[in-house]
Write a structure and sequence with these properties.
This protein is α+β, with helices and mostly antiparallel strands and 96 residues long. It has two helices and six strands; from the N terminus they run αββββββα. The chain is 20% helix and 52% strand. It is globular.
């Protein structure tokens, strides 16, 4: 990473609970119409709602835009820890 990239402030912009833009996205772990799990430079980000669609994703620039009915936005304190626990819970529920 060069100095310009690390000097860019992290931003997340939510407009009318229908359109979200963010930068600093490193990876998208999973997504569907109800939940998007992304890893940002500030940690894991969980976005929940209805009819969610990623309309732009550029991991080189770290930019992501999505639309839909956004009901919650949550960050985890640990890097990827929460996402691993969540996927493990899903697997456990499938095999019961």
């Amino acid at each position: 990473m060069d100095n310009r990239e690390s000097a860019t402030p992290y931003q997340l912009t939510l407009t009318n609970r229908e359109f979200l833009q963010t930068n600093g996205v490193i990876e998208v772990e999973s997504f569907d119409e109800h939940e998007i799990l992304a890893v940002t430079k500030l940690g894991p980000l969980v976005i929940k709602g209805q009819g969610l669609h990623i309309i732009q994703l550029n991991l080189e620039d770290g930019k992501m835009s999505l639309e839909g009915e956004i009901n919650s936005i949550q960050y985890s304190n640990t890097k990827k820890g929460k996402m691993k626990d969540k996927s493990k819970g899903i697997m456990e529920r499938l095999f019961k």
